[in-house]
Amino acid sequence: xxxxxxxxxxxxxxxxxxxxxxxxxxxxxxxxxxxxxxxxxxxxxxxxxxxxxxxxxxxxxxxxxxxxxxxxxxxxxxxxxxxxxxxxxxxxxxxxxxxxxxxxxxxxxxxxxxxxxxxxxxxxxxxxxxxxxxxxxxxxxxxxxxxxxxxxxxxxxxxxxxxxxxxxxxxxxxxxxxxxxxxxxxxxxxxxxxxxxxxxxxxxxxxxxxxxxxxxxxxxxxxxxxxxxxxxxxxxxxxxxxxxxxxxxxxxxxxxxxxxxxxxxxxxxxxxxxxxxxxxxxxxxxxxxxxxxxxxxxxxxxxxxxxxxxxxxxxxxxxxxxxxxxxxxxxxxxxxxxxxxxxxxxxxxxxxxxxxxxxxxxxxxxxxxxxxxxxxxxxxxxxxxxxxxxxxxxx
Length: 395
Hints:
The chain is of the alpha/beta class. It folds into two domains: 3-187 and 303-393, 3-Layer(aba) Sandwich (Aminopeptidase), CATH 3.40.630.10; 189-301, Alpha-Beta Plaits. It is built from eleven helices and 16 strands. It has helices spanning 3-13, 15-27, 36-48, 107-123, 146-152, 212-223, 225-230, 268-288, 308-322, 340-345, 377-393; strands spanning 54-57, 60-66, 74-80, 131-137, 163-174, 178-180, 183-186, 189-197, 201-202, 237-245, 252-253, 256-265, 292-301, 304-306, 327-329, 348-356. Strands 1-2-4-3-5-16-6-15 form an eight-stranded mixed sheet, sandwiched between helices. Helix 4 links the parallel strand 3 and strand 4 (131-137).
């Protein structure tokens, strides 16, 4: 029996335990940086396998699995553990018991798969040389991102981690399949906050007021030229204003308008230049109309770049493990992910785990109240993580 077959057998044998773990995590979600009970649960699960969680943040930590010659090389696997402030609408045995909090982004799956991979790797320690660091990371869903804090606290040091893998569920990919992309994959994600301050009054006398609603409308329209007229056509960029609060009435022009939005792209130099253009457009239009404008561009996660060599190798290893028909190529994905911080430090591979099952009605997208997975993905995710880790160390 070859390595792929052995890992496949081990992953199938632990499917029942994987399902129970995922369902416990799903029914007990906790918000970013408040994952105290989640961390306790992870620590207890690790103790069952003979590991002590080394905490380096309040709710984050790691363990090291030592193979033969542990100091030869060190690579890492990462799972995030936090949930979202969403009221779950699913009705099943593992629906969230913490009202208003839900694992709607699959972090319960990611954590379960890393725990499953640890079980497999611990049984195959004689199959690899080096060390595999398994990271349980808090706060992926909230700035400044738990990855940045863990890196600052030394999660990639002592000994130095050479490469890292991250796995994320994907509702657009059928269960049993995975997706890979080399190079640029996910966007930087910045938050835009704009306050336009005018002079409110009666809607019947606009000439006596400085209307921040009209000014805001002009700002929103002009901001769209940043992508269409300032960005290189070859550089993917997105600017969206998703929240506008005026709080006037049918006959009342308000004193101010508050807006919020996002800017996303894949190049740091252009990213910083765009921030300046955003502020200039807002201030210039407001000044032209006699209003004032306060603009904050809150810098979020950087763009995520998959190391070409590592990702190409991982795709080939996934083909070995799952078969060529079950490995897909991914397109650029303009969402943000704090795994990007790891990719800025060391060679990284962030890939997608299929969870979709149309026949069972499992089709909801991430961050929705009806999100769920086909749990057959758990054994695929745990087994593939273990296989990638061993293949990389033995490459």
